[in-house]
């Protein structure tokens, strides 16, 4: 059974402009924490996670250096237009076993955003399938970056 962390933070859809309140975004990551129960966190709340949990929950793009903020890219879907898109989730190092959830914001999946991130959702393939026609514009540069 997946251990899900629900991130309660408002997001704005980049496709239709709809504003989703913290309870409406359904932004979450599976396997990010050790407890058997799913949890919900708001910005500022502490998570009992270390780098191993980030490695379990996401695909690693690059390792964080020292105590720098960890930036992860996760998918979410707009409830109005149903457009699949991305949120950047920021975590702040507290100690080797704890990170604080700092923020979540909607971002376009560009090579620059990916370059800045440490981790990306394991559901990247789902996003590619739901965005036909964007392969040339976004996916190829992203894959090129991941391979370099």
Give me a quick take on this structure.
The chain is of the alpha+beta class and 148 residues long. The chain has four helices and eleven strands, in the order ββββββαββββαβαα. It has one domain.
Please provide a written account of the structure.
The relative contact order is 0.20. The model has no long low-confidence stretch (mean pLDDT 85). With 148 residues, this protein is of the alpha+beta class. The chain has one domain. The protein is globular and about 40 Å long. The protein is built from four helices and eleven strands; from the N terminus they run ββββββαββββαβαα. Helix content is 22%, strand content 35%. The protein has a six-stranded mixed β-sheet. It has a three-stranded mixed β-sheet with strand order 4-1-5, with no helix packed on it.
Mean pLDDT: 85
Query: Biggest β-sheet: count, sense, barrel?
Result: 6 strands, mixed
Structural Rg: 15 Å
User: How many domains make up the 3D coordinates?
Assistant: 1
Elements, N to C (H/E): EEEEEEHEEEEHEHH
Shape assignment: globular
Q: Which bin fits the share of residues in helices?
A: 10-25%
Q: Numbering strands along the chain, what is their spatial order in the largest sheet?
A: 6-10-9-8-11-7
Q: From the helix content, strand content and strand pairing, which structural class follows?
A: alpha+beta
Uncertain regions spanning at least 5 consecutive residues: none
């Amino acid at each position: 059974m997946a251990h899900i962390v629900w991130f309660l933070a408002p997001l704005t859809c980049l496709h239709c402009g709809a504003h989703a309140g913290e309870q409406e975004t359904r932004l979450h990551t599976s396997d990010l924490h050790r407890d058997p129960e799913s949890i919900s966190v708001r910005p500022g709340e502490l998570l009992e996670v270390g780098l191993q949990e980030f490695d379990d929950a996401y695909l690693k793009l690059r390792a964080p250096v020292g105590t720098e903020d960890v930036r992860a890219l996760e998918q979410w879907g707009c409830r109005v237009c149903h457009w699949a898109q991305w949120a950047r989730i920021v975590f702040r190092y507290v100690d080797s076993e704890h990170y604080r959830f700092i923020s979540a914001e909607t971002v376009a999946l560009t090579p620059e955003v990916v370059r800045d991130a440490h981790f990306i959702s394991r559901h990247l393939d789902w996003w590619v399938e739901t965005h036909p026609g964007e392969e040339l514009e976004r996916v190829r540069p992203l894959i090129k970056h991941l391979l370099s």
